[in-house]
Amino acid sequence: MRAYKPKDDVQKKAYYTDRFYVSPQVPKFSVEDDEVFAHDLEAIRAKVEVLDAYIQVGQMVVFIKPEDNYKVLELLRDRCEYTQLSEMSAIDWLAKRGGFEVFYQMLSMNKRKRLRIKMFINKGEAVNSVEKLFRSADWSEREMFDMFGIEANGHPFMKRILMPNDWQGHPLLKSYPLQGDEFASWYEVDKIYGKEARDIIGPELRDTAKVDRYDSERFARLGHEVPKGTKITGNEPKNEQNYQEDGGVFMIKKFDKKDSVVIDDPQR
Amino acid sequence: MQVKNRLTPFFENITFDREDNEMILNFGPQHPSAHGQLRLMLHLQQEMIVKAHPDIGYLHRGMEKMAENMIYNEFMPTTDRMDYIASSANNYGFALSVERLIGLEVPRRAKVIRMMLLEINRIMSHLFWLATTALDIGAMTVFLFAFREREHLMDIIEGYCGARLTHAAIRIGGVPLDIQDSFIAQLRTFLDKLPANIKDYEDLLNTNRIWLMRMEEVGIISKEMALSWGCTGPMLRASGVAWDIRKEEPYELYDEVEFKVPYSDKGDNFARYRIYMEEMRESAKILYQTIDMYEKCVKDNQTELMAHAPKYVSAPKLDIMTQNYSLMQHFVLVTQGMRPPVGEVYVATESPKGELGFYINSQGGPYPYRLKLRAPSFWHTGILTDLLPGHYIPDVVSIIGTTNIVFGEVDR
User: Fold this and answer.
1) Do A162 and B361 touch (CB under 8 A)?
2) How far apart are CA B201 and CA B361, in angstroms?
C-alpha cells in the first residue's frame, strides 16, 4: 500500500523517524520566576483573560483571546513600556487544529525585555488591526495577509505586499507546494504572452534545479525541455563518423560501430 | 508574439489630466539609487511629495517557505542572500537562534572568530553604505575610496572562507575553520589605516556644501516615529534612542569588550551619516580587542571550534575520518538533519542594518515548522510612507540612501 500523504500539509517531512523517538522540549518556566514579567502579566490579567503564560528562552509568552489583541497591545505600549512591535506574523495550524496562531513580538527598551503575545484564530477569521498602535504593523499585517490570507480588520490598506496583486493563493500555507501551484506555473506565461500562447510555450518550469537522474537523453537540455519521446535531433542525419584515430590507440581495441548495440530505452 | 496591450502598467508613469494638479511619479523599480528593486509611487504637487507608496516584492524568493522545506544546516547558505552586503551577520543570526533553541554553548575561540567576522562585516556594510550613498549624491571620490577599503576586507574574508559576498562562514555550533595565518596581520594593517581613511571620507564630506544641503535637516525621523515603525540599528540611534543589542542584550563576548554606542537626537540624514562613521570606529576598537582575545585563546591552547553536541553537531573532520561512531552521527546529521527540541525562540542580533531577528518554531522535526525572518530593512522601507511626504524629489534619493535598505532583506 502506498503511504498516505496528507493534502493539507505538503511541506517536506522527515523521511524516517524512529518509532520510539520522543522529541525533547525546550524548557518552560513559570512567569513568577521573573519579577518584571510577573508584573507585566499581572497588568494583562487585570484587563483581559490570559489563557496561558510561561517563560521560554528568556522571553515571556502570553496566550490571549484573539478579540483582546488591541487592548493588550495598547496596555503593553502605554503602561508596561513595551514601545516596539518588533515582529508579528502567523503560524499555519490548519492541518492539525483548523486555524492559525498569530504572534506579536514585543520589545521593551527600558526594561530590556522581550515578550510574545500569541493568540489562536480559526480558519476564515480576521484579526483586529493594531496598525493604529504601531505603524510597523501596517506592513506586517499586509505581509501576513499576503502569506496566509488572514485579514486585519481596520487596516487602511489591506493589499498584498510581496506577491503581485493579482496572485492567487497564499504561499506560506502548509497546503501550498514549495514549487508553486498550477496558477503559479501559468502566471507569467498568461501575463506576458496571453492565455492563447499557453499551448506554444507550456507551463513555467518552477523547479529550475530539477534533474531527472534517469534521463540519459535530455539531461544536457536542461532549461530547454521537450516532452518525453520528442526527437531532439530534428531532421539531422545520423552521424556515422568514428572518433578514434586511424592508427588506433595503444591497448584499446578499435571501436566498430556495427558491432555495438544501441539501447533505445534508457530506462529498460 | 508578444501582445503589446498586456504589458501596459497599472499606473502610467506620469498623469497630467488630474484636476487637483497632482502628478504621480513612478520611481523604480529599476532605478540606480533605489539600491535594488524598490518601486515608489510618489504623488507630487509641483516638486513636493504629498504621498508616497513604496512597492516591494520584486526580489521575493520565499525564504521562509524554503526554510520550512530545508534542514537547519541546509538553510545556512540561504541566509547569505538576505543582507548580501554583510552575509556573515545573517549566518550568525540564524546560527545563534538555533543554538539558543537547542541550548548549545559555543567554544570561546569560535566566539572570538565569530565576533571578528561580525565586526568585519559591519565595517564592510558601512563602507558599502557610505560608497553608494555618496555616489547617489554625487561624490564619486568617496565611492572609490570606500570601495578600495572594502576590497581589502573582502580579501581577508575570502582568505577565511573562500567567498567574498556570500560567506556562509558560520555554522550552527561554532565556526568550521580557524582563521588563516595571515588573517590577523592583514586585519591589523587594515585597522591601522582605517582611522586615517575615515578621516579622508569625513574631510571630503563633513564640510562639503552639497553633502550638507542634501543631508542636514532632511529626512527627520522623530523618536516616536522610529519606535512606532519598528526602526532599529542606526536608524533608531540617529533618532535619539541609544539602543544597541550588542550592549543591551549581549551575545557572544560583547560584554567583555569595550565600545561606545554612538547616538544622536537629530534624526536627520546627517545624523545617520555620522552614526555610520562612528560605528566604524567603534567596530575597529572591538576588532583590536578581539585580536587580543584570539591571541589569548591561542596561548591558552583553546583549540575547540565547534560545540560538542553529537545530537546536533557533527564531530570534527578528524574524528569523522577515524572513528566509526562519529561517522555514523555525521551521516545521520547530513542526510536527516538535526532535530531540535519542541519549542519556539526569537533571537535578535544587531546586524549592520539593525535588529535582525529569527523566530523559529520547532515541532521536533528536522525542518522548522515556521521560521520568520525579521529583517530590519523591511520596516526601514515601510517608514518611507510616512517619511517622504513633505520632502522634495531630490531628497528621495538621499533619504533612501541613509535608510540603508538592502532588497535581499526587504523581500526575503
Assistant:
1) no
2) 44
CB contact under 8 A, B372 and A85: no
Flag if B230 and A136 touch (Cβ within 8 Å): yes
Please answer whether residues B96 and B349 qualify as being in contact, where contact means their C-beta atoms are separated by less than 8 angstroms. Answer: yes
Expressed as residue numbers, the domain containing B18 is 4-55
Out of B6, B341, B357, closest to residue A23 by CB = B341
Q: How far apart (Å, rounded) are the C-alpha atoms in residues A69 and A117?
A: 8
User: Does B242 score more than 80 pLDDT?
Assistant: yes
Domain co-membership, B107 together with B244? yes
For residue B356, give the chain A residue with the closest CA.
A86
A176-217: per-residue pLDDT in tens? 988 888 899 899 888 888 888 888 888 887 876 666 666 665
C-alpha cell at A215: 534521463
Q: Is there a contact between A232 and A218 (Cβ–Cβ < 8 Å)? A: yes
Per-residue confidence (pLDDT) for residue A116, from 0 to 100: 93
Residues in chain A: 268
Instruction: Kindly list the structural domains of chain A, giving each domain's residue range(s) and its CATH number in brackets, ordered by start.
Output: 28-153 (3.30.460.80), 182-217 (no CATH)
Does position B7 have pLDDT exceeding 70, yes or no? no
* Cα-based torsion angle of the residue sequence B243, B248, B254, B258 in order, rounded to the nearest 10 degrees: 70
Give yes or no for residue A221 having a pLDDT over 90: no
**Among the partner residues B68, B243, B346, nearest to A11 by beta-carbon distance:** B68
Contact A125, A66 (CB under 8 A): yes
DSSP state letters, A174-237: TTS-TT--HHHHHHHHHHHT-GGGHHHH------TT---TT-SSSGGGTTS---TT--TTTTPP
Same domain for B347 and B295:
yes
What is the predicted ipTM? 0.86
Burial class (CB in 10 A: 0-12, 13-18, 19+), A24: middle
**pLDDT tens per residue, range A117-159:** 999 999 989 999 999 999 999 999 999 999 999 999 999 888 8
CA distance B17 to B256: 63
**CA separation for the pair B406, B84 (Å, rounded):** 8
Domain count, chain B: 2
Q: Residue B117 above 80 pLDDT?
A: yes
Contact B366 A14 (CB under 8 A): yes
Residue B130 maps to which CATH number? Answer: 1.10.645.10
